[in-house]
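Lab notebook, design round three. We kept the backbone fixed and only want residue identities now. Task for the bench partner: fill in a sequence for the structure below.
Input structure tokens:
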């Protein structure tokens, strides 16, 4: 990750940074070193890959341009949502029942893997297994919920979902929706502390981490050589795990993602937090441009939302997000906001992750809002592929989203036009 691309986003003043577990500083890379695997990016994808590779006996060096976890992994909404961005019914429509179920099962494994990592490595990250709600902003969404529930139950063999009426939804979260789709296996956590826990586990397994060491280029001549300003790592393989912050390292990989900004606020601790979200579930709504929110361990509302379709941040993040929060919860109008931050995440044309390889260059990114748990699995799949175990990796690789049309010059404007259309459709639902 390169910290310059997060300038103005107040990541260092986020709620997560303010409540982060102690973590060591890691010296920048100086000089040339050798490894079996070099990982670019100190988020969950890169740390998971590094940890799983080290556990297989590989010598691993990880390069992070800023601080560990200060990319999307450490500043997201912290919502643990089972599945892919596309729903179960759409998976079946796109790929047929057998392949769709295989994809869903693999995505479900990501949920179990994250819970296993938390337990095995004693990661203190405010884990709450309180469920996840998708709330309907229009009555028409309830028909989609019915179709989705039927597919999940009959095709995916996933019996953990149920539909809530408008009254039941209001009892779970005090905002007027038409109903909700509730997943009992959802939940939420402190994503930065989870990421720092993965880093601690990776170090214990023998991984060498260098912070403040942005990767500048990958030289493939005569093997892999990743160069930084003050050093280089020579290795047999490289994992690119910088997501929206790779910036010029591999244009072929980057052509399949669009960096977009997302922004979150954290209120003051709420004495009535239990009345705002009585279920303490993680919540998102049915908009294409999603609002998402949850309670923190100390009773704050963490709310992400707003329509921002370019990487440039709003001049005032708090002022940008507050109207969306107060529209959802009018009872919180005027409540103090203690933290406001943002950052870049990546989406793909298909909204499926972009996982693959090009020679000895392996990569995974473009989680399109589902990276809280998918990223840990993706790192593991990359290492399986490096070790020659390609079956599960190939399943995700086969999703292979198309490049954004027009290359770097046009993908931004075309994406903005598309998102404006979806935003207008969201408004017409009301």
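Proposed sequence:
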């Amino acid at each position: 990750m390169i910290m310059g691309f997060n300038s103005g986003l107040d990541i260092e003043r986020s709620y997560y940074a303010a409540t982060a577990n102690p973590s060591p500083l890691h010296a920048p890379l100086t000089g040339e070193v050798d490894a079996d695997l070099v990982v670019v990016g100190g988020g969950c994808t890169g740390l998971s890959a590094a940890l799983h590779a080290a556990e297989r006996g590989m010598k691993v060096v990880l390069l992070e341009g800023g601080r560990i976890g200060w990319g999307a992994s450490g500043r997201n909404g912290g919502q643990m949502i089972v599945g892919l961005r596309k729903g179960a019914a759409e998976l079946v429509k796109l790929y047929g029942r057998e392949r769709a179920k295989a994809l869903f099962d693999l995505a479900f494994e990501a949920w179990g893997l994250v819970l296993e990592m938390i337990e095995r490595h004693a990661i203190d990250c405010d884990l709450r297994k309180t469920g996840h709600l998708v709330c309907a902003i229009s009555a028409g969404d309830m028909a989609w919920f019915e179709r989705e529930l039927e597919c999940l139950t009959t095709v995916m063999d996933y019996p953990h979902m149920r539909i809530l009426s408008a009254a039941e939804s209001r009892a779970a979260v005090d905002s007027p929706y038409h109903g909700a789709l509730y997943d009992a296996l959802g939940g939420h956590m402190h994503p930065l502390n989870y990421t720092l826990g993965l880093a601690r586990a990776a170090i214990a397994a023998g991984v060498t981490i260098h912070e403040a060491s942005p990767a500048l280029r990958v030289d493939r001549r005569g093997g892999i050589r990743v160069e930084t300003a003050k050093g280089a790592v020579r290795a047999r393989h490289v994992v690119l795990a910088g997501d929206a912050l790779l910036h010029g390292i591999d244009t072929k990989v980057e052509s399949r993602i669009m960096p977009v900004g997302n922004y979150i606020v954290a209120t003051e601790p709420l004495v009535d937090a239990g009345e705002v979200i009585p279920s303490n579930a993680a919540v998102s709504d049915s908009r294409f441009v999603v609002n998402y929110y949850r309670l923190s361990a100390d009773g704050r509302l963490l709310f992400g939302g707003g329509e921002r379709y370019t990487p440039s941040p709003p001049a005032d993040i708090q002022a940008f997000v507050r109207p969306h929060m107060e529209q959802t919860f009018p009872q919180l109008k005027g409540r103090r906001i203690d933290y406001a931050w943002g950052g870049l995440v990546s989406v793909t044309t298909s909204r499926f992750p972009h996982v693959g390889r090009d020679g000895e260059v392996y990569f995974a990114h473009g989680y399109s809002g589902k990276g809280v748990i998918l990223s840990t699995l993706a790192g593991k799949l990359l290492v399986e592929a490096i070790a020659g175990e390609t079956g599960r990796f190939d399943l995700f690789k086969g999703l292979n989203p198309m490049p954004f049309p027009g290359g770097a010059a046009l993908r931004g404007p075309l994406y903005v036009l598309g998102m404006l259309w979806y935003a207008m459709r969201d408004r017409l639902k009301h």
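Keep this in mind before ordering anything: The chain has two domains: 3-76+192-254+350-419, 127-187+259-347.
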